[in-house]
Write a structure and sequence with these properties.
single chain, 418 residues, mainly alpha, Cytochrome p450, three-stranded antiparallel sheet, two-stranded antiparallel ribbon, globular, binds protoporphyrin IX containing FE
């Protein structure tokens, strides 16, 4: 008797599960195409352009797509990173064993409690924010934004990947390290004398040794810091400034208020939470408009290939008003199959970034929220100066996002009604 009751219960449960799955499939099939069908087909030349960029990113152009060949095609354009930072990681190695070892190390760290416990991360990042603010506020109350965000992101990278608490770090060293990393990146692309390069390298090495004294000298922390921190700081800065100080539509402004209020608690409620989805869309839109990897380079058998990610993200045949910051475009029903194909901030398989789906978008929006809460927004009376007449005058002008474009940006906290 007992057996037949439990069998009945299992059958009912199985039926309920099947019915739910069938219903959601039906809703998906009926609703989603009704939105996507409205989309105008994109011109064939745009479709071909996107396909060509994807073929560079996924190494589809290689006659033999073995892992060894893919690594060679990526390592050659990244040689300058080896030269300036002395790094040896997934991006620079041609050894399949070294590649797998590095990637599995990153994949082991990414889902741990330092990286996925968002309220704890928020707390550590807020501490990093307070320390950085104390250090960088000058007497006139004008804050150098790029230097500020670099230090904040650097400290949170140390926290996530090296288990270092922000209070335990000397901020002078963080200043030296972030400036040297930036200078070396610029030098790697320009004709700089070996003496200048060497001076920056020595400063960077010294600062890192003081920040991470227990690290083995053969294990270069820049192997992680470069892919994790270098990609992140500019997109955090640009997303914060765009959402907080530039012209956005009313929906986006309302959503930003909800995101600032709801992060990080919304992430505890799971990915189906409405505010959590909005928050992730802010990161996605920041990454679309300001992709940290604007171009992906490959080089094989003397043949160079470039995927123009920035162009994919701003093509008007795919994105409506591509230069407008509008996270709502990622909402289901509006986000089309063509946009999905053209959206490549983290590249695509087989070498898609392991931080793409969770770590990077969570961290970006958490840091944007900390900046909005701590430094303010236009609405709260804060003011940004771009050191550029047009950007200062016209809040609808798209922000430049090159490495040196943000250096003059400053923020002044202005008391309301004063
Ligand atoms: C906004 C943040 C980030 C962006 C935009 C980004 C972007 C990218 C891109 C475009 C690639 C493909 C590179 C290529 O094939 O040439 C990549 C790969 C990779 N990224 Fe990220 N990344 C970000 C954050 C991170 C973080 C936090 C880590 C952690 C250490 C990381 C680790 C890696 C690794 C190990 C790969 C190589 C994957 C493979 O070859 O299979 N990235 N990333």
């Amino acid at each position: 008797m007992g057996l037949s009751y439990s069998t009945m219960a299992i059958v009912k449960l199985a039926f309920a599960a099947w019915f739910l799955a069938w219903l959601s499939r039906l809703v998906y099939d009926l609703i989603v195409p009704s939105f996507t069908k409205k989309q105008k087909p994109i011109p064939p030349e745009t479709s071909k352009f996107i396909q060509d960029q994807r073929r560079v990113a996924n190494f589809g152009f290689l006659p033999d797509k073995s892992l060894e060949n893919r690594l060679i095609a990526r390592a050659i354009p990244n040689e300058r990173l080896v030269e300036v930072y002395g790094i040896d990681n997934s991006f620079t190695t041609t050894s399949a064993t070294a590649y797998r070892r590095f990637l599995s190390g990153v994949k082991r760290i990414l889902p741990n409690s330092k990286t996925e416990n968002w309220p704890r991360f928020f707390e550590a990042a807020s501490t990093a924010f307070g320390l950085t603010l104390d250090q960088l506020s000058n007497t006139r109350g004008s804050l150098p934004l790029a230097a500020f965000v670099r230090q904040l992101v650097f400290l949170t990278t140390l926290y996530s990947f090296f288990d270092v608490n922000p209070e335990d770090v000397n901020l002078e060293d963080v200043g030296v390290a972030t400036i040297a990393i930036n200078d070396l990146w610029v030098y790697s692309k320009t004709d700089t004398s070996p003496e200048i390069l060497q001076a920056s390298r020595t400063q960077l090495k010294g600062a890192l040794r003081r920040i991470l004294p227990n690290r083995s000298t053969t294990d270069n922390p820049l192997n992680i810091i470069i892919p994790a921190y270098e990609t992140m700081w500019r997109v955090v800065l640009l997303t914060y400034i765009t959402a907080g100080f530039r012209d956005v539509d009313q929906d986006t402004a309302d959503q930003f208020r909800q995101v600032v209020q709801g992060v990080p608690e919304c992430f505890e409620r799971g990915s189906s939470d409405n505010v959590a989805t909005m928050a992730m869309n802010f990161s996605k839109e920041g990454l679309r408009l300001y992709p940290p990897t604007r171009r992906i380079y490959r080089d094989f058998d003397g043949e160079q290939q470039t995927a123009d990610i920035l162009q994919c993200h701003r093509d008007p045949a795919i994105w409506r008003d591509p230069e407008r910051f509008r996270p709502g475009r990622f909402a289901p029903g509006e986000f089309t199959a063509d946009m999905k194909r053209a959206y490549l901030p983290f590249s695509i398989e087989p070498h898609k970034c392991p931080a793409a789906d969770r770590f990077a978008p969570h961290v970006i929006v958490i840091l944007v929220v900390i900046l909005a809460k701590g430094l303010g927004t236009l609405e709260s009376g804060a003011e940004v100066r771009f050191g550029d007449e047009e950007l200062d005058r016209d809040r609808s002008a798209v922000l430049p996002s090159g490495r040196l474009d943000t250096e003059e940006w400053t923020l002044r906290v202005r008391k309301k009604n004063v």
